[in-house]
């Protein structure tokens, strides 16, 4: 029924199914099963967390890690102590039914109910397709706050058995937070490295490759839980560490198996968790206290809103992309509670916590309110506020190249500024990974493969799978590289069109060229030192040419002062011909020699030879008066000399005279802006 699933999230429908099943079992006279904490923590929770950790969008997660940690650690601590303190005040003022609940019990209750639940967040946020930033902030917070929840839960549980809590116990409890969180990450990294190393030797037994991924991940979770460390942190760390190396080693069939088996396993676990929540609500023992339950619900909402507003105000001082009021509202509204809180409360011992049933009732009420009310209204609110949705785009080689380019550019800027930001450390980590870790954990030539080529192979395989699934592979020869046809939709191809096939040798040759010619985007360069700079051999010759040109201009200006007729500017070719063909200039006419080196450029007019005929020691002849302007041919310059700066032969009677009646070379174009500063030689 699509109309129902568009309004009500799947998690709500599953809880309703659980309530109906539990009511049916109870109506028959049987005792409904209750979601036991051992079953939840050992069998139902790990698949969901492994699926989330293995396919975690690492780039968005690392770029927003500081914001996520502040929300997960500081936000959860604030919620726990704010809620616990206010609930203690309510218990003191609430009458005889609540007076016996002490401060430690209320703080324990606050630590259980304060944590955002990853299962509930995944179930709701995946359906509304919120943008990547908000999704990773809320989901990352729900994953990483497990360490805080585990520490506070075990801490207050231990303190409840003490007769007196000292300052040393509080300090040790504070230090245990670092041990639990970092210890869980350390255990996960170790098992992730072992899994990656094992996958290096499984090329002859492909069928059991997926088993190692599941086995080592589950071992990481159990090992962390064994020592009261954070099992969720261990699972996330192992999944993140092993994935790039395991995927480089295993076959494509194994990769597909891991992907779909994890999705199926986590989906089954999620379904069972929400159904069991409904069944346990019907089957469990409840103690309803209006004051306690309503106060819990109200203070949960107030603590969440205040925490998000205060922390975002602080975070925005350091973020480049600020969190807008709409983003803050979605983060606060998306703080859903779920089965982790229920299971932790179910683990409490009746001896020390006689009010467990009342705690369970309050927690179930909060879970139902957040999942039903907030989960059902968040989709229309996202549409109403016009919050940016997730855009489904396929990554391309072009995008990958530009992403790497910007990463290296920002790293270089940080190096120049002397500021070691996260781009600098990320680059250091990538270099260390490429130089040492890949060689140990990836088999064969794949360890030396550049990131771009690896991405190319991944795109190629993905394209091939899409072609097969769309039914278009029958029209395409099997040897064609699918990246070469990535812009062609096989469904719209005409029947008669056949793409040219590439031979295996040709395809391998193309790949070889790509591997050899795609250079590393950033190579280590020698540090800049002005004392070790190599002199440019052309620089001195260039300076000499500029000096000669400057001297020529000065000489030209001096000679213009001696001319009886002012020197004309170089006009357009039409104006020059008109002036030559017009009236005779008299006995003081100047001889303009025209060089043949560049007949179409205005530089061919040699102003060096402009001088009055009378100044050369010869009286002006009548022929000169008749001929007017005389054009002399320049001697061709020898190869290697600069025809611009070399002065022409002096004006003498022996030089060859060219008459005006010679054929006109035609109109010369105007010089363009793009002409070189110094014209080329012959």
TrEMBL record:
CC per GO annotation: basolateral plasma membrane
Q: Keywords on this record? A: Antiport, Calmodulin-binding, Cell membrane, Coiled coil, Glycoprotein, Ion transport, Lipoprotein, Membrane, Palmitate, Phosphoprotein, Sodium, Sodium transport, Transmembrane, Transmembrane helix, Transport, Ubl conjugation
Which parts of this chain are annotated as the region Disordered?
603-682
Asked if the keyword Membrane belongs to this entry, the reply reads yes
List each coiled-coil range.
Answer: 504-531
- Write down the membrane topology: Multi-pass membrane protein
Q: Indicate the transmembrane segments per the record.
A: 6-25, 37-56, 68-91, 103-124, 136-156, 168-198, 218-241, 262-284, 290-316, 328-347, 359-382
| Subcellular location per the Swiss-Prot or TrEMBL entry | Basolateral cell membrane
Q: Which InterPro entries match?
A: Cation/H_exchanger_CPA1 (IPR018422), Cation/H_exchanger_TM (IPR006153), NaH_exchanger (IPR004709), NHE-1-like (IPR001970), NHE_CaM-bd (IPR032103)
Matches recorded under Pfam families: Na_H_Exchanger (PF00999), NEXCaM_BD (PF16644)
Which residue intervals define the domain Cation/H+ exchanger transmembrane in the entry? 8-382
Q: Which GO terms describe its molecular function?
A: calmodulin binding; potassium:proton antiporter activity; sodium:proton antiporter activity
What does the record list as GO biological process? regulation of intracellular pH; sodium ion import across plasma membrane
Which family is it part of? Belongs to the monovalent cation:proton antiporter 1 (CPA1) transporter (TC 2.A.36) family.
Please report the name of this protein according to its UniProt entry.
Sodium/hydrogen exchanger
Organism (species): Crotophaga sulcirostris
High-level lineage = Eukaryota, Metazoa, Chordata, Craniata, Vertebrata
